Automatic annotation (TrEMBL):
Species annotation: Mesonia aestuariivivens
Coiled-coil portions: 431-458
UniProt cross-references to InterPro entries, sorted A to Z: GH3, GH3_C, GH3_M
Species classification: Bacteria, Pseudomonadati, Bacteroidota, Flavobacteriia, Flavobacteriales
Domain GH3 C-terminal: 389-496
Protein name, as recorded: GH3 auxin-responsive promoter family protein
A Pfam family per the record: GH3
Domain GH3 middle span(s) in chain numbering: 297-362
Keywords of the record: Coiled coil
């Protein structure tokens, strides 16, 4: 028996048993008051009267009425630019130690999101919560002695004007506790390699030296890494290199669209555990094996609010109309899409991170990611969310027994009339024609979505499909932003961006 593993497992089981049922709404009220109290003397806190909000009978209601919604550009242009001028106490006491670089899924210029020491601590605490939750997954004792492959962005953070900057996964990995360093792979030296392809090459070369029990990272880049390892060692699946691999913690995007292509790289099933880490904080993690939903981390430096995801509340650039209604955690409904807002210990306030979520269990505060506000395709009234697109693609996979882990779509005028043009990524030879796929995809969407069906009878004249190798999607991400880390493929493009993409496809066919 693995003695050390048994001790670790016992400690985790005890921690899990002592964890009492949480009243998530009450925890959120405490978090909001704590945030307001700590930030009341900042420039932001004084401007919006945090002290007065704290004195209100209903603090949550007063907060909603007093503070507007912000997206990144509004926070940057109105407040955060002052931090870069050397000022302190702007939206959070002091100055941030880090900035998380995030180009998101649109635009080529990186956003610089403040990351305070308090946020680093909050991310650590969330990681401990996730590890504690492993007591619910019945992992064997020897699992806790294996190494963990954390595939994120480079930990080679850049120093600038007295702070360090990099992607949030690199910042988090550079702050791992000392006791975890022995378990962490690919290790400090390889993790500091900036070039993604070079880093993956080094991982492949060293792969057989490690006893990997768990993987952690965004699915698309994890798949690419596993393929490189498999090809380098000339084996059939990843378990021939890492026979003790038992778990995968996904993050950043919904795992389900990648499930079929991911499982094809395995030699045996692994436990998949979803997590939700964004540049703005560690938002949620899966705590139960009987569901793939994730529990919001409600007691750890982030206050959440939820705007119903309705077309009339979303502007064309994906931002929110200021008159959009908002719900607290106590007011949300199950199975309804919401735009997620966050106020945090990094000094974001009522901040739109761009994701949409739905509650699968309100009492447990369990959610699933359903899409992005900017990935809402509504040019001709089709009202397609990413969640609906993902489901339609999954139906195609089942219908034709194929794997389509990536896609992008745009509403494009062809001969003066709008069509939805889909580019589907695959790594296999597919015998079904693009015309057959387009017909089936169109039928799936019409059956599942009334608004889409109405649009198809009027302004949306047709659907076209083009199959592309997966490498094209990877190289597009590399050409426009950066491979690996938190980078995700755009699911919906406007016509101008889509033209750039199709030109890129032609050049790289």
């Amino acid at each position: 028996m693995a003695i050390i593993g048994s001790l670790i497992k016992s400690a985790i089981d005890v921690a899990g048993n002592f964890a009492s049922d949480t009243n998530h709404s009450d925890e959120q009220k405490k978090v909001l008051k704590n945030l307001l109290e700590k930030a009341k003397d900042t420039a932001f806190g004084k401007y919006y009267g945090f002290q007065k909000i704290l004195e209100a009978k209903n603090v949550e209601d007063a907060f909603q009425k007093q503070v507007p919604y912000f997206d990144y550009h509004q926070m940057q242009e109105q407040w955060w630019y002052k931090l870069h001028e050397g000022l302190e106490d702007i939206t959070w006491p002091g100055k941030p130690s880090y900035y998380a670089l995030s180009s998101g899924t649109t635009g080529k210029s990186s956003k610089r999101i403040p990351v305070t020491d308090e946020m680093i601590e909050a991310i650590r605490n969330a990681g401990i919560k996730q590890v504690t939750a492993l007591s619910n997954f019945n992992m064997p004792s020897d699992f806790f002695e294996k190494e963990i492959m954390m595939l994120g962005s480079s930990t080679n953070l850049q120093e600038k004007d007295g702070y360090l900057e990099g992607e949030i996964s690199g910042i988090s990995a550079s702050n791992i506790p000392f006791w975890f360093e022995g378990y962490y792979k690919p290790g400090k030296e390889i993790s500091q390699i900036d070039d993604w392809d070079e880093r993956v090459k080094n991982i492949a070369e060293n792969a057989k030296n490690w006893d990997i029990g768990a993987l952690s990272g965004i699915p698309s880049w994890m798949e690419l890494m596993m393929k490189e390892v498999i090809n380098y060692h000339k084996v059939e699946n990843i378990h021939e290199v890492w026979p003790n691999l038992q778990a995968y913690t996904s993050g950043g995007v919904a795992f389900q669209p990648y499930a079929k292509s991911f499982e094809a790289l395995l030699g045996k099933p692994v436990t998949v555990i979803d997590t939700y880490l964004a540049s703005e904080g560690f938002i949620a993690c899966q705590v139960r094996p009987e569901t793939s939903s994730m529990q919001l981390i409600t007691d750890n430096g982030i206050y959440f609010e939820f705007v119903p995801f309705e077309p009339e509340y979303i502007k064309s650039d994906g931002s929110l109309a200021q008159d959009a209604p908002v719900k607290t955690l106590a007011e949300v409904e199950k199975d309804k899409d919401y735009v997620l807002l966050m106020s945090t210990v990094s000094g974001t306030w009522r901040y739109l991170i761009g994701d949409t979520i739905a509650f699968t269990d309100v009492e447990r505060a369990e959610i699933k990611i359903t899409g992005r506000t900017k990935f809402f395709l509504n040019v001709v009234g089709s009202q397609l969310s990413v969640n609906k697109m993902n489901k339609a693609i999954q139906e195609l996979e089942q219908q034709f027994d194929i794997k389509l882990p990536e896609f992008t779509v745009a509403a494009v005028k062809i001969d003066g009339e709008f069509h939805h043009v889909w580019h589907l990524g695959t790594a296999q030879e597919i015998s079904v024609s693009e015309e057959e796929l387009a017909k089936a995809l169109d039928e799936n969407l019409q059956e599942a979505n009334k608004n889409y069906r109405v649009a198809r009878s009027k302004a949306l004249k047709g659907v076209k499909v083009k199959l592309l190798p997966m490498d094209v999607f990877y190289e597009w991400s590399g050409a426009n932003k950066k491979k690996g880390g938190q980078v995700k493929m755009e699911k919906v493009m406007d016509e101008e961006k889509f033209k750039d993409f199709t030109d890129f496809v032609k050049q790289n066919s």
